[in-house]
Amino acid sequence: MSDPNNAAAPGIPGRGTPPATVDPHIHRRRWAILGVLILSLLVVVLDNSILNVAIKVIADPDQGLGASQSQLQWAINSYTLVFAGLLFTAGILGDRYGRKKLLLFGMAVFGVASLLSSMAQSPGQLIAARAVMGFGAAFVMPATLSIISNVFEPHERPKAIGIWSGAVGLAIAIGPITGGALLEHFWWGSVFLINVPIVVVGITAMILMVPDSKDPRPGKLDPVGVLLSIAGLVSLVYGIIKGGEDSWSSPQVIGTMLLGVAILGVFVWFEKRSDHPALDVRLFRERTFSAATAAIGLVFFALMGVTFFMAFYLQSVRGYTPLETGLFLLPLAIGQLLFAPRSAGLVRKYGVRAVTTAGMLVVTGTFLAFLAADADTPMWLMCGVFFFQGVGMSLVMPPATNSVMASLPREKAGVGSAVTNTVRQVGGALGVAVLGSVLSSVYRDQIAGNGVPKGADESIEATLGAAAHAGPAGSGWVEPAKDSFITAMHATTLGSAAVAAIGAVVVFFWMPRKPAATPAEAGEQARETAKV
Question: What positions does the domain Major facilitator superfamily (MFS) profile occupy (predicted)?
């Protein structure tokens, strides 16, 4: 998303157009504006966290839509893939036409699509409505971070981004509990319908409070790059999910994944030669930029895959209600809420490399701790693991996000925002696809030989559903299903731990010891040096 008219070198601190001074009237309202932006962020993140406790109910043929595990994966990934694929275009459109306008548009689309999701009559309709929700969310997420970068001066921006990141933890806290409470009293569609009043309140507050801003020299649109990225990701993810559903050795599965990789290769080749790329791959020549985005992607790859199966573990294996499941996940959010705002101070004291490496190691340790979980593990131990998982994430996400944003001038805030959110969504989508497919494959192998009929061996929910309808003959399938799921869960958490460990190595060797200076800070340092 480079600007050929700008001689600045994006990604190199101290280069580019110095940021304009924030309007004093806007500056006085900056914390209130941050509150409004967090509300819009909450509704986007809230939706996925609510869905985590609802997927078991949606899979139930009596209470929900009877969705298979692969359809549930697509209900999640149809949202994230459209979201990720459009983020760069949304960022450019916000830079060109005004970030507030695009934020309002995205919220309106998200609200309408939430209503459609709540009214879905089949898994296919839900998948389609979720894709539209992803379309709306793509215009919301980058706009919030871009506006923060324009409203806050460089010295306050890390704190504001820390609070912004902490809001993700708040959504993780509110989502499962809200979803569980709704499912206790209403039908499954209520977990989407709840978004509508929040969207209405958010749009009203934005109109009254949030200032508009745009890039005086916005980049050009790159529809070819956007289409190539979406086509490549969808093909790759489809092949991965299909592999878990059928067989990894299937020619269709191998061919689809290779096609996806090939299309993504063409995408990178095209973007390197474009003078207005959707994704400026030259940004990744900057070591800090690459390490920070890799950390974000790897954390969400591991976390989203684990979150996908945790609802089944807590509800299908342990027998807890959706509301109880939400309460058990609360420590994860508390860990993020407590430590995300403090991450900036830790970075100043110990350095960005030490803090992010420690965070990745904590996340790795929590995944390894899940290997000890079985059908009788005390829940207070599980809650402790969830808490430290939140702590680990809070030590990675804010410093990594700020490292990306600090490497770009304020006018290009949409670029940094789009990069961080795209990597987060792509990492999450691949995590659900890869780790969800590992879960399916191992479960199917483990349950074989227990007399479970074909079709009922795809997931624990399918097996338990078949057992409930089979009468006395199905009673012997319940315990083997739980044991098989726990074995599959251990394989999945081991994969998550390996991914998080790779992230720890990446940030240790490639993240700088000190936080990157923003262009404004670098300019101030240069002026101080000149005075001496």
Answer: 33-515
Q: Are 26 and 416 in contact (CB under 8 A)?
A: no
Question: Strand, coil or helix: what is 98?
Answer: coil
Examine the domain organization and report whether 190 and 239 are in the same domain. no
Q: Domain for residue 354, yes or no?
A: yes
Considering the domain architecture, whether residues 384 and 256 belong to the same structural domain is answered as: no
Residue 32 to residues 6, 37, 463: CA-CA distances in angstroms? 33, 9, 50
Q: Based on the domain organization, do 420 and 294 belong to the same domain?
A: yes
Are 216 and 230 in a shared domain? no
Q: What share of the chain is helix, strand, coil (3-state, %, to 5)?
A: 80, 0, 20
**pLDDT tens digits for range 502-516:** 999 988 988 877 654
Residue-range definition of the domain harbouring residue 237: 223-275
pLDDT in tens, 292-330: 888 888 888 887 777 777 888 988 899 888 888 888 888
Percentage of the chain modeled with pLDDT above 70: 85
Handedness of CA 257, 486, 49, 116 (dihedral sign): positive
pLDDT digits (tens, 9 = 90+) for 141-186: 777 777 877 777 777 777 787 777 667 666 766 777 888 888 888 8
Are 91 and 126 within one domain? yes
Residue pair 4/275 in contact (Cβ under 8 Å)? The answer is yes
